[in-house]
Design goal:
Number of strands: 2
Structural class: mainly alpha
Helix content: over 70%
Strand content: under 5%
Largest sheet: 2 strands, antiparallel
Order of helices and strands: EHHEHHH
Distance between the termini: 9 Å
Length: about 170
């Protein structure tokens, strides 16, 4: 069985056509831009306030900061492209940009679930062992748990991304 590439050329970009039927695309794009800026402002303010106030250096607020980082990643992965399509009428996206957006969106999805589970674990320890809470969830353990879950999230997404690339390569080769 011979393996030949049936495509005449490599895919370098995609055309985004999902917004072509949108009425008043510039108004929708401006609304998305305003919401995106509010998300960035709110999440950044959240991180800044928690980092600044020493009284908020507790496990739950650390997890809230992590969730704010996830929100920034999630909104920054797709919103700029949507804004460009709607406001500037740029409907082409490069292959690398598309893969990067997909990877960041999937990472944000996975990390949101992990962070909410960490927050639930924090509440479980607080309810189950209220007198031992501070000895169980030390700052070192919280940082280690968070870093471990970020590494696990990156590993999951990298494995899925490499499997997707291998599948797409096989599809073009056969």
């Amino acid at each position: 069985m011979s393996f030949t590439n049936l495509t005449a050329e490599a895919i370098t970009e995609f055309d985004i056509i999902g917004f072509s039927g949108t009425q008043n695309p510039k108004a929708v794009g401006c609304i998305i831009l305003i919401i995106y800026l509010l998300i960035l402002l709110g999440s950044s303010a959240n991180i800044y306030i928690i980092a600044r106030d020493k009284r908020l250096h507790t496990p739950m607020y650390f997890f809230i900061c992590s969730l704010s980082v996830v929100d920034i990643i999630n909104s920054s992965s797709v919103s700029p492209t949507m804004i460009l399509v709607l406001i500037a009428d740029i409907t082409a996206i490069s292959y690398r940009s598309c893969i990067t957006q997909m990877t960041l969106t999937n990472l944000a999805f996975v990390m949101e679930k992990f962070t909410i589970r960490l927050m639930a674990y924090d509440r479980l320890v607080a309810i189950s062992n209220p007198l031992r809470y501070h000895s169980i969830l030390t700052k070192t353990r919280i940082v280690l748990l968070t870093v471990a879950l970020w590494v696990l999230g990156f590993a999951i997404i990298a494995a899925a991304d490499s499997r997707l690339r291998a599948t797409s390569t096989e599809a073009t080769v056969t």
